[in-house]
Amino acid sequence: MVASIVAPAPAQDAVPPAPDWVQLTTAAGWQPRDSQGEVVFDGRLWIFGGWFTSHEAPPRDVWSSPDGRAWRQVEATAPWRHSDLPMTVVHDGRMWLMGGWFNGRLPGHSASNEVWSSSDGRTWRRDTAAAGWSPRLAGGIVAFKERIWILGGTENYYFGDDTSLRNDVWSSADGRDWRLETAAAGWSPRAYHQAVVLGEHIYVLGGGNYVPRYEAHADVWRSADGVHWEPVTAEAPWHARLWFSSVTYRDRIWVLGGWSNHPHRNWNDVWHSADGRDWRRLDSRVVWKERHEHSAYVFNDRIVVAGGHAQPLNAEVWSLFVPPDWRPDTP
Hints:
By secondary structure, the protein is an all-beta fold.
């Protein structure tokens, strides 16, 4: 008689395998790029402008997609020019693009404090030519308590210094009239960071400075009013970084990819936290190549990642579905 072999039952508290990323397309219709603006609006994914090289003006095109696979050019030459590292958000039934950098390293380069908005991606309205905050790029931006919030950023890209960095916080209900909430938030002046809303708080994560002196942070701060800030953690377990993406999904904050100089590399790690303090890494078997300055969205109950600099620039689109009952914190 041959004895049967029975596999041991898995432990009841075993962590289920991490969900895998799915590639929606290897080449969306838009030219490969990074540093673009992005929003979810009117049931579609949107991309605005971005960066091709430091020796040409940034693109001014607008693209949208209902599914991340098929993309349509909505506008070839939008009226805004500063579309390298702009701040973009949805508020009051419109898409908003503000700030940003123009002309790379070429003569005539500049930052902006223009504010533009659109309800269709084709017709753009300049809500103000000079917002109350100084011209800047790579700031944090969120929609919170029926207002748009701008958090920090830098007034110069390739040619600035530490004095170019900001940690001020501004808000506006209409994109025209801006209110200084604080001239100096608790977090240090920075750019290339991320800001998200989770529950009743704005969170500011990471970032730092690129040139002439590199610095990067892995800290997390939060505020219930944009004025008073409390440190959540001085050093999250993800490596200090710039040019990463962050979203809120499944009642958690997610940190995706980015770049650091020590070590000099791109990242493709994915981290999540329910409170900004305790973080877990999502160890998917399938994930996108290391990259920075990619777009990240929450769309159709999924996280979507598009484009970015993955050495080289790319126009890939990936998605991740995390089941609502997945237990990421089970030991």
